[in-house]
Amino acid sequence: MCLYMVRPMAKRCVELSEELVKRIESVLDKAGFKSVEEFIEFVVSEALEAVAGPGEASMSKEDEEKVKERLRALGYI
């Protein structure tokens, strides 16, 4: 499966195994995501922040609460 990550300036194709996509699809509702692409973008963003620190713009309080809600839904907090 090829997922397109749409950004204001560019888009890239990311290939994932069908098995992984099916696993992601099975948790979308529970985790509060609308699509596989949204889930992947969130997970990659979180991993990058954990490794490299916050990006150029810091997260708003509203976005931070959304992240916390999703992490709770996934059982991480």
Can you tell me about this structure?
It comes from Pyrolobus fumarii (strain DSM 11204 / 1A). GO terms for molecular function: DNA binding. Keywords: DNA-binding. This is CopG/DNA-binding domain-containing protein. A hairpin with a 4-residue loop joins strand 1 (2-6) and strand 2 (11-15). Helix content is 57%, strand content 13%. With 77 residues, the protein is of the alpha+beta class. It has a two-stranded antiparallel sheet with strand order 1-2. The model has no long low-confidence stretch (mean pLDDT 80). It is globular and about 35 Å long. The N and C termini lie far apart (31 Å). It has one domain. The protein has helices spanning 18-31, 36-52, 61-73, and strands spanning 2-6, 11-15.
The residue fraction in helices comes out at 55-70%
Order of helices and strands: EEHHH
Task: Specify Rg, calculated over alpha carbons.
Answer: 13 Å
| Quaternary | single chain
Protein name: CopG/DNA-binding domain-containing protein
Keywords: DNA-binding
GO molecular function: DNA binding
